Amino acid sequence: MTSKPFYVTTAISYPNGAPHIGHAYEMIATDAIARFKRLEGREVYFLTGTDEHGIKMVQTAMAQGITPRELADRNAAEFKKLAAALNISNDDFIRTTEQRHHESSQGIWKKMAANHNGDIFQSTYKGWYSVRDEAYFDEDELTEKDGKRFAPSGAEVEWVEEPTYFFRLSAYQDKLLALYESNPDFIAPKERRNEVISFVKGGLNDLSISRTTFDWGIPVPDAPGHVMYVWVDALTNYISGLGYPDEAADLFKKFWPADLHVIGKDIIRFHTVYWPAFLMSAGIEVPHRVFAHGFLTVDGHKMSKSLGNVIDPFTLIEEFGADALRYFLLREVSFGNDGDYSRDKLVNRVNADLANNLGNLAQRSLSMINKNCDGKVPTPGPLTEADDAIIAEVGEAIAAAQQAMDQQLVHEASGVIIAALASANTYFAAQEPWALKKTDPARMATVLYVTADTVRRLAIPMLAFVPESAARLLDQLGIAAESRLLADSKIPAGLQPGAELPVPQGVFARIERKVE
Ligand code: ME8
Fold first, then answer.
1. CB of 303 closer than 6 A to ligand 1?
2. Residue minimizing CA distance to atom 10 of ligand 1
3. Looking at the chain, which terminus has fewer C-beta neighbours within 10 angstroms, N or C?
4. ipTM of this predicted complex?
5. Whose CA is nearest to atom 30 of ligand 1?
6. pLDDT of residue 162
7. In whole angstroms, what is the distance from residue 389 CA to residue 387 CA?
């Protein structure tokens, strides 16, 4: 058992609205990664949370006639509820309005200010600011239409001048390039890495990191009237969650630097340029890896309030169950690329893979055992070539899934497990255990044993993807909680012949299509 700790995070979401399916996707994918590492026997710490400061929160709250804190409280509760409803195994949930996070952000600020480079200095910021992106843009990044200027995101920008503190980002160009060079795995997928490298090679401007135009933020130490730029505060959540600024805190010592930050592709620059620069400036180790996933569209369209196609994950969980939604998103979207949600695709995937492949195999083999083997795990006889072949194939699939998960290729990992299940179905059909009942009951026992053991072995990695259903399957096979590690799935013949099994029950029901 490897005990090297593993620290993984999601981005922290803006609670200026209710969570949507994109937020659910990021939680689900990160959860699958966290759960898989636990299956490998690693000690995992998994952090998620909400990013509650900034002008956007102020503006949304104002429009709704409530305070930013009320808005944050209301929606942070929804994000927590979503994590629970999706069966997310996060160890903590951080809110940036918490005292511990204020102390952490002020702690890192002071370290950056104390850097002998003088990494934080005061000046006047003049520039094009997009409220929606919470970022300043260079003139040449903007487009112009009808006398108005727009950021690459399409958000309108305005000219802003304010006295602010700056971070000497320009001093970090070479250090960042050296980081990307020395750790080629720092940015994934690869295409993103190239984008970031060419951006940094193009030169870095110093970054304005305080604001005086509103006060919904973390006060800058010893600078009345200044609150921190929301990204300094937001990124710091990853260490606040481990007890920073107390660098002797148990969690911080054990889990920092993070093994993996999972984020969406729109915020890669913040995580792979600003964040490591802030950390280097503060004398803190940088994370090992940042993985940027793609964006989800709905029926081929970008999700937007104006199109009215924002998908509420709670409705999907209620209708299909958390495992169906989890499985669909993990398997359907190639992790790192954009993906599309549609109701039809979800129903098809879940029916084909979970109900037909996994559910049927388990149900057919277990109900035969129940009827013909006295409800006890049958005793296998000598193995045939066909038995050996499926046993070997399952072992290879588990190894391939593990390799894929090491690269965060969750779609590939779930795909190889399902492919092995499809082979197991073919094996079962070809062996015709129902026909052997009369002609060769000893051979029937062997086929049922091999099949049930295959279900056991493949249900174990599935615990990362569909935790509730896979656990119910393992319950039906009488597998003890401590025998559900990936190591157990690698060893065939883990079922104890003669062990009593519970009466089998269906685990994955087919989703019946609604008549529109
Ligand atoms: O960016 N599909 O918060 P956020 C997939 N607070 N992922 C999506 C998505 C979609 N349609 N829409 C958003 C923020 N996301 C900051 C992060 S981290 C220190 C601060 C992803 O609520 C998005 O890429 O806008 C991000 O990773 C996460 O959801 C939260 O987005």
1. yes
2. 22
3. C
4. 0.99
5. 13
6. 85
7. 5
